[in-house]
Give the backbone structure.
Amino acid sequence: MPDLVSQSETSSAEPLLEVGELRKYFPIRRGFFKRIVGHVKAVDNVDLYVREGETLGLVGESGCGKTTTGRCILRAIEPTSGQILFRDPTLGRVDISQLDKEQVRLVRHNIRMIFQDPYASLNPRMTLLDIVGAPLRAMGIAHGKELEERVAEMLQLVGLRPEYMRRYPHAFSGGQRQRIGLAHALAPYPKFVVCDEPVSALDVSVQAQILNLLKDLQEQMGLTYLFVAHDLSVVAHISDRVAVMYVGKIVELASTAELFSSPKHPYTEALMSAIPIPDPRPREKRILLTGEVANPANPPSGCYFHPRCTYAKDICKVEEPQFEEAAPGHYVKCHFGRELDLTGAVRVSL
Ligand code: SF4
């Protein structure tokens, strides 16, 4: 597992989570006997770490493997291979990929997930008391009066009135439902939260409220986030560092300020040029990506991005670039990451 925790970085906080050479391949089966004829490489050799108290944004187009990475970390799906090292307050430093069923249950006190769709993720037949109290009951954390008090506390924390606890989800708006989702995820007081596109199903006017609430809760509860999203402006608003994914691989990773001011991967530059800006004047340079996203079941040779890259040279078609530190704490997977002078973006506030 490559040492990604750069010596040159100033932050002293220890990584809470370290993912090394993580792979998730889905088999493709064909024919009467359902023989395996290939694999979809949804996550292919991903390395990342998240320090205690920070937010790492994981961004990329739909289908690039970012949600699958989050689900592997939670063991909601089984990774094909790789390490997922986590400093659990009860179990100590564990490799989540190697835990048995009972240990996974224990570790899920401390690693939780916030889902994308607040309409589909809440059971319409359960009251808020049942929804928010479910993980507390299942984990044996609280029962009876104590459980009600904890649910009331969680509802208050996410900005809902405790008197609502006997109501059903249909009585709430999209933003309020996502608040219920937050209360459900955070009820066991976790350490680490995978936020899977938590605002992409919400109106723009509500997105900033939920993002600010996530920031406040992070401070109050000492949370660490892996924030999965396809929208760079949302990621910029909340993340300390950002990892950019393309076809199952991380192609760039840097602090948010550094990534936005001087991207080093052509794919990141193209994503940034697509961020809408509230300025009617035409921008200097807009990069329209041509061609299809590479097929993870049959990716191109060399650099996966070469059929769409305007900077591609002959070497890009035959040799896969390494993921290397191009500047302190700034990693890039491009043969020319140190040389290219790419255009960044202004950080857009929501
Ligand atoms: Fe483009 Fe080549 Fe860099 Fe890939 S390695 S991003 S094709 S310049």
